[in-house]
Amino acid sequence: VITESGVFKDGVEINNFNLAKYMDEDGGKVHAMAATLEDYEAFFAEMLMQAEDVIHFSLAKNIGKSYENAISASKGFDHVHVVNTGQFSGGMAMLVKDAVADAAAGMSVDTIIERAKNNSKNITTFIYLPKPVHFYENKLMSDWLYALVKNSNIHLRMIVKNDAFKWGGFYMGRNESARRRFIRRGFIPKRLFDSRECYIGHVELTQKELNTLKNDLKKDGLFDKININDVSVVSASNAGVGAMCFSFRYNRMIKK
Predict the structure, then answer these.
(1) N or C: which end of the chain has fewer CB within 10 A?
(2) pTM
(3) 189-202, pLDDT tens digit by residue?
């Protein structure tokens, strides 16, 4: 994470609380930087000391340079496999959870990877942006879309599609009410999605705000299990304070 005060490692030298204060209260500019080729080489070498094969689940390949750098680094190792998840945040978490279960069941590396690629097609991730400025400054939003919303009371819904972020809608009004509409109205008909669980990632929402969102989902009976976690510091620097990611699975393949 690059700030005007220096460069910090995600989750090691800076956390979301410090980042939020810097962005929201101090008005500081923040940019995300993918792990370098050298970082990945060191990471893969360390992981191969603990396992015969390493499967690395990467961000969608057109979101930053993570996938590109991981692929380049993996070429120096015979047993490192980089998977383009086509996902972000909670969508990646769902795939990793599946892969851990597959590995525990004794499946081969090739089978785990193939299943992950198929499972990714059934996962959708939406992102709620109360303010577009950080997304735009990190080159994750087009000029025309930013020009349309930057001076208005519009809160954007983005979607991860075709390995990149795409515009998926917008909400008007106060941030709190817009965020609740994002959670409650972002769904296709219930019969088409898997109601067993969803993943919500957030950037420094209060416990009260999180409880409200969780209660809304429970009230609507949409999901049996609701997983709520902080997003990574890099993701937070891209999305800004108050942003959310929302991931769930489809029951079956439908055209998106």
Answers:
(1) C
(2) 0.85
(3) 666 788 888 999 99
